[in-house]
Amino acid sequence: MKPAAILTDIEGTTTPIAFVHRVLFPYARARMAEFVASGHAALAEVPEPRLETLLGWMDRDEKITALKTIQGIIWEKGYKSGAITAELYEDVPPALRRWARAGLRLFVYSSGSVPAQRLLFGHTPAGDLTGLFQAYFDTRVGPKREASSYADIARGVNVPPEEMLFLSDVEAELDAAKASGLQTCQLVRAEDGTAASARHETAKDFDDVARKFGLPHG
After folding, report:
1. Which DSSP helix (H) or strand (E) runs through 109?
2. Torsion-angle region of residue 33: left (phi > 0), alpha (psi -120 to 50) or beta?
3. pTM higher than 0.90 for the full model?
4. What does the buried/exposed string (b/e) look like for 131-167 if buried means 16 or more CB atoms within 10 Å of the residue's CB?
5. Contact call for residues 176 and 145 (beta carbons, < 8 A)
6. Which among 184, 183, 185, 146 has a CA at the least distance from the CA of 162?
7. How many other C-beta atoms lie within 10 A of the C-beta of residue 108?
8. Residue 37 predicted with pLDDT over 90
9. Is the peptide bond before 3 cis (omega within 30 degrees of 0)?
10. In degrees rounded to 5, what are phi and psi of residue 106?
């Protein structure tokens, strides 16, 4: 069945993993002490000692909602000041625009907070892409490796699971999506060194996705 909706991951799918670890994480880490000193309300969910807790979570790349929220707040200043410009794979913006023009419904599901997702897609070399997406989801909807998260997303946007295609580089996330009835495709980006899954369709880029699933392509 040709997909009617696309649900996409970000890191390793639309965006090089290196951008997150080379640009975003160091930017937030360098400003974390100042953020903790500010006493921001977002710190309420962080156990004491807060700075050490946050840096420990970052070191372990924990998918904790409080951490992702705080990182997003810090990144907002960087994006708005021009210190940060998002990196997307070159095939992503034109593919998203083609799919949106063709009437496909586009959604994002990432462990990064929804505000951080909007900032990334709103500050790209290809312009502001936020309007292409109908909704954004983060770990508040549930963990990305649990099938119920994908079922809740599909139900929430009123799309039958079998008509939604989930794009990710992570096999365990694709397993969870498939268990909920979604179509799946793994992005195997050479730059990220992704290991190809034997359980899911694979594609080297978004044009390859389009050809394999009967979507508009360049």
Report:
1. strand 105-109
2. alpha
3. yes
4. ebbeebbbbebbebebbebbbebbeeeebebebbbbb
5. yes
6. 183
7. 25
8. yes
9. no
10. -110, 135
